[in-house]
Amino acid sequence: MRRRVRHESKPPIPGQGTIVLSKSAKRTGRFLKSLVRCAAVAAVAVGLGIATPHSASANSKYSGIVVDTKTGKTLYSYKADTPRYPASLTKIMTLYVLFEELEAGRFGLNSQLKITKTSAAKPPSKLGLKPGSSIRVKDAILALVTKSANDIAAAIAENVSGSEAAFARRMTATARRIGMKDTTFRNASGLPDSRQKTTARDMAILGRAIQERFPKYYGYFDTRVFTYNGRRYGNHNRLLGAVRGVDGIKTGYIRASGFNLVTSVKRDNREIVAVVMGGRTGASRNAQMKKLIGQYLPKASTGPDRSDVLVASAQRGPAFHAASLEDAPIPGLKPDLDGGPLVTGTVPVPAKATAVAAYAPERRTAIALPEAKAEVSARDRIINSPLFGHGNVKPARKVAQVKKVKTFAIVPGRPFPSPAKTAESEQVEVASAEPVAMGDADIDEDGTVTVASNNSADPEPGWQVQIAAAETEDLAISMLKRAKGKAGRALRGIDPYTEPVESAGSTLYRARFVGFTSKSEAWGACKALKRAKYDCYAIYE
């Protein structure tokens, strides 16, 4: 009979390459390792804007939700009922109402929408059509989906309801009828208005409803490029073509909102609508959306569609019924009671849809903007070189940077013009200091040049040209206005744009021109600027 021999390893000997730890020391070591891992995860989460409790408190604007399109089940939710600014997500509802008009037969895809002086005066992003001109409904749809054109959104509103204010009331009423209980619209574009609020949950409801109700027209949201009057406009939604299954739908940005995105994904017999609001940058917003898609799409149902999405049905009949409906109730701000990521649940929807009628015209309400500083102080210096492409706002891809960057100085005795006071106006306008030759799309009848601040709509992705980074937004705007005048035809039809960037604990404002259709066009503009003694470089972002 064989005896079982018991082998025991000898304890390690101190001093021979092995450290002996006591039980308490081992426990302490495991705790410290765990702490380091948590800190690393939190650091990555904060950088991307991921919805952990700690990162959410660091980024107070963030909220998000993921909903299973087939079942209506909430797969992920963080501050989904906290009031947020929709920015250009507003245009999803603008198109929803326009699709109702198409379905009711009051408009066709080839119907012409007139451009008024009011709609033409909207700040960028815009097509820049002249007052008195017109645009086809189909082109208007594509202009909103790709260029996110504010002038065209206003034109849709005026042609459908007589005024943008009346159209906004219809938008709010439609929102109620599809279950968006915490949303109020005040304009058709998403341009800044402190009374225009929504929630991530409401945007998810809208994202589901528009594709359920209008499958015939929803496909427009998958448009990558829109060509109009010889110019090509790319879609702001960079997830199209980059993430498998993404078929829309809309981005949005104003300074008050941060970077927003509503996305629809259909893949492997699963369907979700996801919303990210309040991203610090477009890149971090997109990264967070990709993370949500990757984590929660596999949890979506592969079964049949069992959702009960409510859609508001438009009545066929005359286009206008004055006072046929009372003003929709305006919701108060809901207190933020969310303490962290929420568990799964179901998106509530009312039991029955009712019809939406058009409203009578009404005067639109203007927004007063703060008065700009009268002169440029000595501290308002221009910072070039590294701050062009660094800081918290990072370009997606950096190309064609000039090898040598000279210092850009303000010429003594020739200060840059400061922005004029714009009380009771929705635009940021810069007073013209000298006569310059520019395109009709860039100059208003009163001789002022409209400059898109970072509080306007999000810029079109594509080729951009940057000339400097300034300590104040006023100075950046002044530089852009002056540079555009000097460059002449090379910048005709191109939008000036300012963008904040954090660097070394301070905020700087990039001065950029956006909307170039090709690399050669951007480089050509840069050459023209260099001839005018401006340093610049071109990037694709």
Describe the protein's architecture and organization.
The strands form six sheets. The chain has a six-stranded antiparallel sheet with strand order 7-8-9-1-2-11, with helices on both faces. The protein is globular and about 65 Å long. It has twelve helices and 19 strands. The chain has helices spanning 23-48, 53-58, 90-104, 117-120, 137-147, 150-161, 164-177, 200-213, 215-218, 282-296, 473-487, 519-531, and strands spanning 63-68, 73-78, 112-114, 134-136, 225-228, 231-234, 246-254, 258-267, 270-279, 313-314, 345-346, 355-356, 382-383, 429-430, 449-450, 463-470, 495-503, 506-516, 537-540. With 541 residues, the protein is an alpha+beta fold. It has two domains: 58-356, 3-Layer(aba) Sandwich (Beta-lactamase), CATH 3.40.710; 382-540, Alpha-Beta Plaits.
Secondary-structure blueprint of this entry?
Layout: H1 23-48, H2 53-58, E1 63-68, E2 73-78, H3 90-104, E3 112-114, H4 117-120, E4 134-136, H5 137-147, H6 150-161, H7 164-177, H8 200-213, H9 215-218, E5 225-228, E6 231-234, E7 246-254, E8 258-267, E9 270-279, H10 282-296, E10 313-314, E11 345-346, E12 355-356, E13 382-383, E14 429-430, E15 449-450, E16 463-470, H11 473-487, E17 495-503, E18 506-516, H12 519-531, E19 537-540
Parallel strand pairs: 10-12
Antiparallel strand pairs: 1-2, 1-9, 2-11, 3-4, 5-6, 7-8, 8-9, 13-16, 14-15, 16-18, 16-19, 17-18
Helix pairs in contact: 3-6, 5-6, 6-7, 11-12
